[in-house]
Amino acid sequence: MTAYIIRRVILIIPTLFIVSLLAFFLIRWIPGDVIDLMVAIMQQYVSLGSTTTDLVGSSEEVVAQLAQTLREQLGLDVPAHIQYLRWLGDLFRGQLGDSLWTRQPVGTDILFRLPISLQLGLMAIIFSLVIALPVGIISGIRPDSGIDQVLRSFAILLVTVPAFWLGTMVVVYPALWWGWAPPLFFVQFGDDPLGNLAQMFVPSLIQGMLLSGIIMRFTRTMMLEVLRQDYVRTAWAKGLRERVLVVRHVLKNATIPVITMIGLQLPVLIGGAVIVEKIFNIPGLGSLIIEALEKRDYPVVTAVNLLMAGVVLVVNVLIDVSYAYLDPRIRYD
User: Residue 195: which region, alpha, beta or left (left: phi > 0; alpha: psi -120 to 50)?
Assistant: First the structure.
């Protein structure tokens, strides 16, 4: 087991290297240069009443000189591969670079927002399991019954509903009917635990419901497959009670592929959090990467993508290791 874990951890390194390459260069291919955006904002600021008039009616030469100065100050005046090598050197020193707009270390923003996204994701997974596992088990035990038809229809509904639509409906209609709206300011858990949980309840429930549809259907399928095994039929024939049979013999084997499905849905959960965080004013990593994409803040986008990839890879390793605990027949050499 130890050798297997070491091999998997070593494989994470080249994977993250490839992810860093893609994240670093693909963002630079998006139309719209960060320097042009900065210059345009400066010109707009001057036109709105600043006392500085150097850019008002400025010639193309002055604008080009300003753009070149900004490129030199931000380190964007060298080829992209040189920028990547510099960023890679900072990464080896434990630094993720500085934001092009605030000139603050990217790691500072990530350390502030990462616990918020982790809390949202953890609560969403808890809600999804609380909804999906009991429903999937009941549907698997009573296949093709009336309750099974209802539960399967409910699962299909949850799978097909988009996160942005459900989140928008939850915001719009309660505001029209009861005057409720998401808080404008985020409450930190350390400042007000109950207020924080109340604020995170609705967005995490939405995320959990969308994730539970897939887990629910997969749990039902695996329950049906395990219930058809010979050892289960033998237990039935010996008169073992249904509850004991399901809990001791069926559920543990049926949840192994379900755990795999949860790991595969983790990127979807992170991607969906981008929309949910924006709708409910939650300052997590999803909101951070959206703001960085809008501003073409290259270091922030690269760092957040690298972090998300690392989380997904580590979680997948933990899921693979958990197989040996759930099924004693599984051994890693």
Answer: alpha
Single pTM value for the model: 0.79
Rounded Cα distance, 25 and 82, in Å: 12
Both tokens assigned to 291: 């703001």
Please give the C-alpha separations between residue 307 and each of 285, 301, 311, in angstroms, as whole numbers.
Answer: 10, 10, 6
For the beta carbon of residue 333, count every other beta carbon within 10 angstroms.
5
At a CB cut-off of 8 Å and minimum separation 6, what does 202 contact? 170, 182, 280
Is it the case that residue 20 has pLDDT exceeding 50? yes
Q: Which residues contact 174 (CB under 8 A, 6 or more apart)?
A: 180, 181
Task: State how far the Cα of 35 lies from the Cα of 152, in Å rounded to an integer.
Answer: 52
Residues in the chain: 333
What whole-number percentage of the chain has pLDDT above 70? 90
Which amino acid is present at 51?
Answer: T
Question: Within a 13 Å sphere around the CA of 40, how many CA atoms are in the beta-carbon half?
Answer: 7
Instruction: Give the span between the Cα atoms of 30 and 26, in whole angstroms.
Output: 7
pLDDT in tens, 274-300: 888 888 888 888 888 888 888 888 899
**Lowest-confidence range among 138-142, 236-240, 259-263, 328-332?**
328-332
Q: Distance between CA atoms of 76 and 229, rounded to whole angstroms?
A: 62
DSSP state at residue 95? -
